[in-house]
Amino acid sequence: MSRFSEPQDPLFQALDRSLEIDRRLWPYDVAQSRAHATMLASRGIIGDDDREAIISALDTVEQELASGRFPFRDDDVDIHMAIERRVTEIAGRSGGKIHTGRSRNDQVATDLALYARDHAVRLADQVETLARTLIDVAEAHIDWALPGYTHLQRAQPVYLSHHLLAYVWMLVRDRERFRFAARQADVLPLGAGALAGVNFDTDRPMVARELGFAGVVPNSIDAVSNRDFALDLLQACAVVSTHLSRLGAEIVQWSSQEFGFMELSDAWSSGSSLMPQKKNPDCGELLRGKAPRVVGHLAALHGVMHALPLTYNKDLQEDKEHVFDAVDTVTVCLDAANGMLSTCSFKRERMAEAASDENIAATDIADFLVKRGLPFREAHGVVAGLVRICAESGRKLSQLSIDEYQAQSELLDQDVYGLLEQSSWLESKISLGGTALPRVQEQLAQARAVLDL
Ligand code: ARG
């Protein structure tokens, strides 16, 4: 029997059907159905014979799904209905008992929480792998100088190791975000029923233990309407994608002929279909280009959740595509970043040449004056004057005479020429977190300790 006397419109069916998206939840749906049936039998809500018939049918269903031989039907609206339908075909009347004390509302929330937890844990590990690679690359280029930039103008030289470690710290925070998302997904929604709880004396903690959850959601209304764990996972995905986009963008710049700081391996480059000389950094560009898509998924799920009345609404069916695509995208991007970085090579000479632009020492001359008693703002003005003389006369700072220096400030003497030697600009950055080599060594050790390396 059905409550309806007319068939559904095929257009509505097409809109409503979510199987193509949610079928990948099947391992979680099978696992929770096993745990649920086991609990129902342990409470005497279904018989042991029912449990056996259900579990054995679930074993068959699992094999069929794993091997791609599951007989999906056009009227399977989602993975939950498909699995229940098939269990009932195999187990007969006992199969009809699997949905006792369960609603698709707590069922889908449980599947998604299991998925989110697994992938958040996995992505935290993947982030860690990339951080390790970056640490190795940093260590291999510990004292290779390159210009640091602000506004994409050469600002102050830094060591490549220092620059790469900046990304390591981003990834350390990303790992934390994924771990947080995993904890948020680690409580069991199942047992909430449609929204109010169920008419049976179930054992939710038992189901939680079976599925490896740390606890159960304490409120049945929250259990079926909560998707915060999905937002948290998407947030972690969005932020790490943004980090990868910055890394990708720098690789695009660095590998250009204009910069010439690095070369990508052939394995991580593309050619041009037209111009035979080209070696394109498509991987870096895609790290840059994929990020807005992931951030878009986060914004879209916020949109779905916004002002949504409690409890379950079909809007929630729209959560999964955003989560899945964000997770898939970040998974491939993290692997790609790892592959590209572990095979690229840096050009020491080119970077050193760019870092030896003497104008980069301007701040150092100002600080030299400060150490001799001039207020910083006045020192800034003195050096601006020197840089201007250089620009107007087409010379470098080291080519100005001592008289020219002293005309700007009597505090300047021969020592100023020592400041213009390249290594001094790096090794003078001795403050905690600075680019001086001993500080970078400290930082490397700290990063290794945080990552348990
Ligand atoms: N496919 C649905 C979803 O993804 C499952 C839950 C359906 N619940 C309902 N009351 N219609 O949200």
Which features characterize this protein?
single chain; two-stranded antiparallel sheet; two-stranded parallel ribbon; about 450 residues; mainly alpha; Fumarase C, Chain B, domain 1; binds arginine; Ribonucleotide Reductase Protein R1, domain 1; Fumarase C, Chain A, domain 2
Topology pattern, helix = H, strand = E: HHHHHHEEHEHEHHEHHEHHHHHHH
Q: CATH topology of the largest domain, what is it called?
A: Fumarase C, Chain A, domain 2
CATH homologous superfamily (4th level) name of the largest domain: Fumarase/aspartase (Central domain)
- Average pLDDT metric: 95
Identify the overall geometry: elongated
Structural class: mainly alpha
Name the poorly predicted regions: none
With helices defined by DSSP (H or I, 4 residues minimum), what is the helix count?
Answer: 19
Q: How do the strands line up in the largest sheet? A: 1-2
Q: Biggest sheet, in brief?
A: 2 strands, antiparallel
Rg, Å, rounded: 31 Å
